[in-house]
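Obj: model holo form, ligand = fe (iii) ion.
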Amino acid sequence: MPFIDHVSDSDLQRLALQRVVPALLSRGFCYVDGLLGEVAGGAVLEQVRDMHRSGALQDGRLASSAPGVHRRNVRGDKIAWVSGAERGCEAVNFLLNLIDKLVSMCAGRLGTGTGTGAGAGTSIRERSKAMVACYPGNGTGYVKHVDNHNYDGRRITCIYYLNKDWNAKEHGGVLRIFPEGKSYVVDIQPLFDRLLLFWSDRRNPHEVQPSYATRYAITVWYFDSEERAEAKRRFRDLAASTSQQQQQPPQDSGSS
Ligand SMILES: Cc1cc(NC(=O)CCC(=O)O)nc(C)c1Br
Ligand SMILES: [Fe+3]
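Output (holo structure tokens):
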């Protein structure tokens, strides 16, 4: 079904230049509410709910329960990786295309301000598949971490939230960002039709606080081409060197 084109290219251009780029450069994160609008946003939510109902969201990480509580492992978030081309993902694909357009309109203007010191600036031309995630609402969250803590190439994390009538006081599930070197934290509610963008590296450690209602989100990571290529080279060298070691006979320890 043809989605209502809620956001025109000129809207996106304005959003990129007047909101997203300045915020990323000055604060390192930015969120936009009402990205797709009720109809298209609702279509994405329905498709994610269908994935959840059909069991497509799996292999969540084991989340240990609170210390002291009888130590059973409870399931954390459930995820599925989608390209958007899958049947039943048409609305997700529409979302991904829109985010791609928005990020490409920003990419040329994120210059050397990214503070990575790597090369002349950020050339973002590729991204990961989309990670559809569901926190089941059993009190699990996601421990504090950095997405790209070791130059794996990821430059911008984009998270699209899908949760209607979310109330953090009752449902928890706040994404808390701890901006590097700042004395304050930033609490983001995972609200329906909200798009959050932030630098994936050490500038933005973050955690998901325990969620007490079903919490859906779709995440894509955009790569800096140079850093990604370098990370792939490093990974190939590592793989090559470890496989060589396996081929060589184990060096005797030299002990008598
Ligand atoms: C699998 C995986 C999930 C996440 N998710 C979040 O940080 C949650 C953000 C939110 O839902 O608000 N991050 C990493 C680095 C990996 Br890997
Ligand atoms: Fe993360």
